[in-house]
Design a protein that fits this description.
By secondary structure, this protein is mostly helical. The protein has one domain. Helices cover about 70% and strands about 0% of the residues. The chain contains 10 helices and 2 strands. Strands 1-2 form a two-stranded antiparallel ribbon. It is globular and about 55 Å long. The C terminus is likely disordered.
Length: about 240
Amino acid sequence: MTSQTKALLVHLFTATGAVLAMLAMLAAVDGKWSLMFLWLVVAFAVDGIDGPLARHYHVKKYAPRIDGVLLDLIIDYLTYVFIPAFALFKSGLLPGWTGWFAIIVITYASAVYFADDRMKTEDNSFHGFPGCWNMLVLVLFAVEPSFWLILILVVAMAVAMFLPLKFIHPARTVRWRLLSLPVAMAWTFFAGWAAWVDFHPESWAHWGLVATSLYLLLAGMVQQVIPPRNRQSQGNAS
């Protein structure tokens, strides 16, 4: 198999996310939230795998006709933003005007953020909340907090998109990656399990979801507060 064929296959693998998005949307339209999230979890796993594959097989060099970054962004907007926002609106977790407010804020702010070519930091983290609404909404379905808390979280995360806050990429942010990557894999497992049991309130997966979500949400900001050891040693040396 040639290098060009391998690179093209990576693009085709990424494109399966669009099919998964459609399957998730069809489930959402029918109000089958658990099935919808199962498809989104599979899409999340594909999104986590295709990046390392693309870098390994040098898709920019061997399959440059297809813009892998653009393809990934299109699918991410569907699976990370559009479908979760729809689910949050139709689920009844946000009654009345709050549901309308949330979907407008989520879709509008995310569209602007996804078009920002400075969303990545020097260490391959994200500059601002990276629009992972699929992760937040899944946790909200599992925990079912009050609608006021949901509304506060939606506003806070939308604002956080445009603040100088760092959010890690579990696979690409080198610092703490030995911990971050297993945590992200654990989140995927807990998310799939919670959806599989139809978000049963006594499922232990909910606690795992909350714990791993808090780490993924806060790790980057903690890194901003605590400088790397090499910087500390440089400071001491100077």
